[in-house]
Structures are given as structure tokens and as C-alpha cells.
Design brief:
single chain; 291 residues; alpha/beta; three-stranded mixed β-sheet; 24% strand; globular
């Protein structure tokens, strides 16, 4: 078992239900504009979508741990990946680049401790790191996006914290794209699907990082331009070559299936599309089998 993988069979995962993140329709209506959502989620439909996603995970052998409601968090706390990184030694608490999410790491620290997850460290000011900017290329190689949500000081601290846990930290400069207020994480551009397979949106990948992937012998499943905004690149591997995707990415699904991937879909109009957070964002893997 390991926490340092994005492709091994997903054994245990933390998530946060809309009833504990969104709380109510009134809470949604008061927050969604300031958090830069595309539109206000519908509370009841969001709960139904989330319940279906949980069932999909559980039906495939994953134990789902639900994080509790917390007064210091808001709508975005449904995207649990961003507040922490889980290593084989325990949780490294992030420090959010989005100021309105600043309460999430401490809230998650308490919840993870109650689940038996040790604290391995945290990012301190002025460093920032969000979990969506972190992805495992293998058990000892971690890629980190450098952009508006994760800064150089955060990466420096992470390198020190992870000195004994990894052999290489690959720093990936991220594009400006739609600006500082938009959600642009590294995992907006790449999702590992197996130890030798990744789903990518190459038009926004830096040439050096794309070459790193190719030099490592990875096969790239290319997401078409028309499906990038529907989070075609946001793919959650629940086992090697078994993945969950947001419904509606027909061409991406076909490309994944041609690469030998079993693709499972969920309806994410309320919990994913409106807040720009796909299945990787909605999940904080706690334990996987070693791939």
C-alpha cells in the first residue's frame, strides 16, 4: 500500500458531501459569484450527483470517508484534494493560493487526524501550494505546477519536507491562460491513468514538461480542445487503466478506451462543471495499492 501514487487501486479516499460543503441553497447563492463559479450549483441536484459518485466508488471497492462541515470553509471545500498532499508518512497541509479557501487546511487537518492520518508537515507563509498542482509520476517522483495557486516559496518548502520521500520534484511552469482568477492547476492539464499512461491537454503543456513525460516512456492520451472546458483532462484513476470521468467527454472517452482504459462516467453538472472541479478535485486519496 502507498499514498504516493495516482494510479494504484484506490483503497481509501476522503471526500466532502455538498450538505457539508455547500450546506444549503442560501449558502450557495451568497458565495458562488465571489468564488468565481460559472453558475450557482443547485443544492439538491448536487447532493444526488455526489451520492451517485460515492456509490460508483464504493461499488468498485473504495472506502469513502466523508469530511465534516466546518465553519471556516465554504463551497470550494468540496474540492478536497487542494488542501493537502498525502504521503507515506502522513499529510502535508497546503497553504491555499486562493485567499477565500484559507481555512481549509486546518479544517482538513482535524478531520484527517480523526481518520488516523498523521501530520507530516505544512506549508507556511509566504509559501502557497494547492493539491491540484501536485501529481505523482511514480512512487518517488512528484510533479508540481508553478502558477497562481502555487508559488516558488511553497515549492521550496515542499522540497525540504519531502527530501526523504521522493527522488525527484519536477517543477512545471503553468500558463497564464484565463488569468489569476481562473482555476488553472497542473491537474487541469494532466491526469495519470496508469504507470505508463497519462491523459493530457498538450496545447497548454510546456514543451520541457511534455518532453519529460515522453522521455519517461509515457503514452499521452490527448484531450481535444472542445472537451478541455468540460474537464476532459480531469480523470480519476481508481485502478490502473480504470478511470472515472465527467459525463459528456465523448472523444476523450473514446481515446481512453482505445488505450485499453475502462471508463466510468458520473453526472457532474452541479458538483463539477459549475465549480470547475472534476473527479480528481472531489477526492483526496488516502491509500492505494502499489501499482
Amino acid at each position: 500500500m502507498t499514498a504516493q501514487s495516482d494510479v494504484g487501486r484506490l483503497v481509501r479516499v476522503a471526500m466532502k458531501h455538498p450538505r457539508d460543503a455547500f450546506v444549503s441553497q442560501a449558502s450557495i447563492d451568497s458565495q458562488w459569484k465571489s468564488l468565481n463559479y460559472h453558475a450557482p450549483p443547485h443544492f439538491l441536484r448536487a447532493c444526488l450527483e455526489f451520492d451517485a459518485l460515492v456509490r460508483l466508488l464504493e461499488d468498485n471497492g473504495t472506502r469513502v470517508e466523508l469530511l465534516p462541515q466546518h465553519a471556516a470553509t465554504g463551497l470550494d471545500s468540496i474540492y478536497v484534494r487542494d488542501a493537502s498532499l498525502i504521503t507515506d508518512r502522513g499529510a502535508v497541509l497546503c497553504r491555499m493560493g486562493k485567499a477565500l479557501r484559507s481555512g481549509e487546511p486546518d479544517a482538513q487537518a482535524t478531520a484527517l487526524s480523526n481518520l488516523g492520518v498523521a501530520l507530516a508537515g505544512r506549508i507556511e507563509p509566504p509559501g502557497t501550494i494547492e493539491g491540484g498542482d501536485l501529481t505523482w509520476l511514480d512512487h518517488r517522483t512528484l510533479a508540481v505546477g508553478l502558477g497562481y495557486r502555487t508559488n516558488a516559496e511553497g515549492i521550496r518548502q515542499l522540497r525540504e519536507l519531502m527530501a526523504d520521500d521522493i527522488d525527484e520534484l519536477v517543477v512545471v511552469p503553468l500558463p497564464h491562460w484565463r488569468g489569476e482568477s481562473d482555476v488553472m492547476h497542473l491537474m487541469s492539464l494532466i491526469s495519470p491513468v496508469d504507470h505508463d499512461l497519462v491523459c493530457v491537454y498538450s496545447p497548454l503543456l510546456s514543451v520541457p514538461f511534455r518532453n519529460v513525460l515522453l522521455d519517461r516512456g509515457l503514452t499521452l492520451v490527448e484531450v481535444p480542445h472542445g472537451e478541455f472546458d468540460n474537464m476532459g483532462t480531469n480523470v480519476l484513476a481508481i485502478a490502473p487503466r480504470t478511470a472515472i470521468v465527467v459525463k459528456g467527454n465523448r472523444d476523450t472517452r473514446r481515446a481512453l478506451e482505445q488505450a485499453g482504459v475502462q471508463v466510468l462516467e458520473y453526472e457532474g453538472a452541479e458538483i463539477s462543471v459549475k465549480g470547475a472541479g472534476g473527479p480528481t478535485c472531489l477526492t483526496r486519496p488516502l491509500m492505494r495499492e502499489r501499482p
